[in-house]
Amino acid sequence: MASLSTPPATAAAAPANSRWPLALAALLLVLGSSASLWAWRSSADYLARQADAEFERFSELSVNNIGQRVQHQLDLLSGFQALFRASSSVSREEFHRYYNDLRVQVRFPGLLAVQYAERVEPAQRAAFEAAVRADRSVEAAGYPDFQIHPPGEREDYLVVTYNEPMRGNETAFGHDNTADPGRREAVERARDSGQAQAGPPMRLMQQRAGMLVRLPIYRRGLALDSLQQRRSAYIGQLTGVLLLEDLLRDTLPSHAEAPYQVRITDGGLLDGQPAGPPLPQALVARSRADGPGALWADNAAPPAPQDQRQHTLAMAGRAWTIEVARPPVDHATAPIPLLLLGGGLSISLLGALLMARQSLLRQRAQRLALVMSAQARANADRLDAVFNSTVDGILTIDRHGTVLSANRAALAIFGHPAGRLVGHSLSRLMPLGAAAQLGQWLPGDGRSHSLQARRADGTLFPVELGVSQMEVDGQRQYVGVVRDLSEAQAAQARMAAADQALRAANELREAVFEHAAFALVVTDAQGLIQALNPAAERLMGCRAADEVGRNTLGSFHDRQDGQVLQRMLQAHQNPHPAKVSTAQAQAQADTAAALPARSIERTLHINRRDGGRVQTSLTVSALHDSAGAVSGFLGIAYDITERQRLADQLSQLAYHDSLTGLPNRIRLEDDLRRAIAQAGRRHEPLALLFIDLDRFKPINDQHGHAVGDQVLCEVARRLQTALRSADLVARLGGDEFVVLLSSLAHHDDSLVVADKLMLALAEPMHIGSLTLQVGASMGVARYPEAGGTAAELLRSADAAMYQVKQAGRSTQPLLPLLATAAPARAPADGPARHPPLRP
User: Fold this and answer.
1) Which residues pair with 728 in a beta bridge?
2) Least confidently predicted of 22-36, 123-137, 278-292, 574-588
3) pTM for this one?
4) Contact residues for 246 (Cβ-Cβ < 8 A; gap 6+)
5) CB-count exposure of residue 461 (10 Å: 0-12, 13-18, 19+)
6) Which neighbouring-strand residues pair with 772?
7) Dist. CA 327–CA 288, nearest whole Å
8) Are 426 and 402 in contact (CB under 8 A)?
9) Residue 837 CB: number of other CB atoms within 10 A?
10) Which end of the chain is less enclosed by CB atoms within 10 A, N or C?
């Protein structure tokens, strides 16, 4: 146990040691005053550097914001230009709808108007004005007062034809952009370059300061490689009317946020043309109470070089000079440096006084220290055991950043042996920036901070450091508790990456859903609508707010199509159905083929909410939850009305005769093959009649092809009238017709039908003022006697008709003749011909 008595040598040395605190107090006063002056100067320099960095950041941010905002407007105009590239003719209604769909007035502040100006020749002026006045696609009353202005005759006109929005921009409607030489110059630059070109700042017709950006429109499909080609293809231009005040209002911080001011000067064209005047100061400058533009006022001294920044911005063929300035500030007289100076001097003086007072107490403190030293050593041993048993690293540091001690955990974290760490600077453990940052946390508040540390091998790793202050032997020291965050941050990084990927995927899905060209409809498992994209709203003539959660997808279909849709949904919910009855299998026949597939596509009609009806192709896919159960459905639909109409037209042209409308040879052969197959299965009779008009060529030669065409049409009409709906009459070409009788009770019925047809054709025909009479020769081929294939029946019927034609010409030229044919066998030199079986 330590003794409480003071050793004699130590007691004798106490009076001599008492003089040192007085000298130390004087030294402290000198050093504190010097440190206060240094802190005052350093803080002023620091504030100046901070102000310069903030000024530089504001300058670059202002230039970037201005450039991005202007580019945002140019991208919008490029979208309108793409609308004209995609279509050979853009109507006023399409232009108006595209403007409204983009919500230009909300999403593009500063864009006063988007205009399309059409190039008009002087000879076309009257017709052009009349067409615009009568255009009622957007305004029900049209534009009865429309005319090209300003008045006057010019080589050509570039007239503002589409003007969005019209309200507030009426003065621009009908304006000729080539009337003003200044505007014409920008128009011609845009036409010849094919790129967006801006004009100089000006006072607009709307009596506001702004500028015009022009994009050329060329005739679709023409080459644009050379200057001459672009001039020849030029048909008009798009004009974006930009208001500088509105465009830049939200671009720069308000003067409450920053004491900076901005001036934009038009530097002229990028190719070296003369510069324009400065843009109006009141529209783009920001300042405090001294008023906009005060730094550049005529009676004010120009800003010092360190108080201004200058940048050049290319904007649609023109060069803008953007100047950013700030008022001069003396950071040495700022509150914080003055506070540091005064506080430091006060603290130094107070410290010196305290140090002198401490000299009186030092002797007694020394005696007490000797008494307590033994106890301190014992406590130190206990603390050392605790110090080295903690999981976290513990460092003690003096106020100069020197490591005084480190426990075993700290040595393991940093990878240093004790001899190479204690007594060395803290910079050995941390990069220079982190060490400086640590100095800002001193004297320490116990809170934890994250920073980068350096291991013995030079690698950097993240740590969590908490700094606390303590007093040891009258000296201020700091305790740092260090925890290695490498594993924790790696786990957090993995979680953040996964979360970012999930957010990106969600954003991509939302973008695809909103901007998809096809209609997308999401329902729950019962078919109740959960979401509609804009394309679905347009296709179905409804609003998502009126349908989501209220109606099912089946409410847009009639009963028959609704049943088809229901079977499509059931096919996804039960992809492996159990055995069903014959009646049920028949009802599910149209979905059975699609059961293995992930999507089912059908052609259905949608009954629009506005009363219209549109034919669509609908594809339904099932959505599954994490357990694999069907949680909903995704429907993808698009309008196929036009495609179906074209398909019907192509089918009509491919399978029907263009003159009479009767089926042609291709349709006849298809129907004949199907009829033969059916007759073979059912063992039913079938007959083919081959008809050739007898006196058609003289009529055609004597009265012309027009009369001959009318005779052929009348023959077709009589044949169709005399036949049943189940029979087929086709025209093979010229004056040859074929009749397919596929629903006969007996073979002899074909002769009855043939007699009926010949009597119908023997009746006189009244073509205009002419009364004409034609006869017919007819051959009959029966299945299966005359042939078992379509080709054999046609050859047999043709051969029988030919024999009738030969017999009629030599015996009874004015009477229609009929013959039936035996099975046809084609000789090597042509089709078989058979003698008539019946005159």
Assistant:
1) 740
2) 278-292
3) 0.40
4) 109, 110, 112
5) middle
6) 765
7) 10
8) yes
9) 15
10) N
